[in-house]
């Protein structure tokens, strides 16, 4: 059914140089639902470099029911990817943070202030459940700020339970939470409704960062094939201000 998408001619001239740095991906092998091998990771790093990215901060899931990742696990595997990428002649800078699911384990980490992997600017990339809203979302995000971190909510366009009252997005942004939309959401990959919400969030200037959320090289191929690149250049994403790891 989707053969037309995969057979579509790849646009080798696509560039996301204006984005500069990607802050959301899953390129640490064998730790979550992203890549499984170092070779896969290097292939994705190479593709990211060819798309014009100069830096990437990959963000494995930390979700205690599924992916019990620690800084030691993530940073150890990161060094393997860095070394293999260097040996492959790649020059893109590679760092790592994490994508934290707002569960009880995260609350414990936050209370101690230890073992948290942050994006530049002491930012914490966090995600919510897809099917059922948390009762204490606003309180948890406020706690993150209270502890001296800057919350960045991953892919808000995918939390469909917010659609009945989109004003929640403005409330989150006004409350100090930065929002990060997925490029894949703009390609139609997750469905028409999610694409429409991603576009609505952009048009209402509620999005701070754009991320790939790439789990496999096919995701990057889809981004390269997309016809949305000229469209997204109209919006002032702030990825470029995150210039150091």
TrEMBL record:
Gene3D superfamilies xref list: Metal-dependent hydrolases
GO molecular function annotations of the record: manganese ion binding; protein tyrosine phosphatase activity
Coiled-coil residue windows: none
Key words, A-Z: Hydrolase
Reactions this protein catalyses: O-phospho-L-tyrosyl-[protein] + H2O = L-tyrosyl-[protein] + phosphate
InterPro entries named in the record: Caps_polysacc_synth_CpsB/CapC (IPR016667), Pol/histidinol_Pase-like (IPR016195)
Entry EC number(s): 3.1.3.48
UniProt xrefs under SUPFAM superfamilies: PHP domain-like
Protein family membership: Belongs to the metallo-dependent hydrolases superfamily. CpsB/CapC family.
UniProt name for this protein: protein-tyrosine-phosphatase
